[in-house]
Specification:
- The chain has one domain.
- The protein has 3 helices and 2 strands, in the order ααββα.
- The chain has a two-stranded antiparallel ribbon.
- The radius of gyration is 15 Å and the shape is globular.
- Bound molecules: zinc ion (ZN).
- Zinc ion (ZN) binds next to loops.
Length: about 100
């Protein structure tokens, strides 16, 4: 099974689309993602945009609410997990996608 954790809001910011998700460019991107994913045997799972992917410890599940965007490294006050912010987000999005897939 192929799966990729993808933060759509971060991708939207990176691509600097500057408009809502419903604009034509974004809609076309999502349509193509769904089409290509299905064609290549991938699951495309939408994660709640408020899911705390960067603030949740990927080791113990603690949600570090005080973490700021400027804190590029996550240090868990509970288990001591030390990890890059983006890497942690990717792991958590991947795990959340699997959780949703397995609960469906
Ligand atoms: Zn932890």
């Amino acid at each position: 099974m192929k799966h990729i954790g993808l933060d759509m809001s971060a991708l939207k910011q990176t691509l600097n689309l500057g408009k809502s998700y419903s604009d034509n460019g974004w809609g076309m991107f999502v349509t193509m993602l769904l089409y290509k994913g299905k064609r290549n045997g991938c699951y495309i799972i939408k994660i709640d945009k408020w899911f705390p992917s960067s603030k949740t410890c990927s080791e113990c599940g603690y949600v570090h609410k005080e973490l700021q965007l400027s804190d590029r490294t996550y240090v868990c006050p509970v288990c001591g997990n030390l990890i890059d912010w983006d890497e942690q987000a990717a792991i958590n999005i991947d795990l959340e996608g699997l959780r949703i897939l397995l609960s469906a």
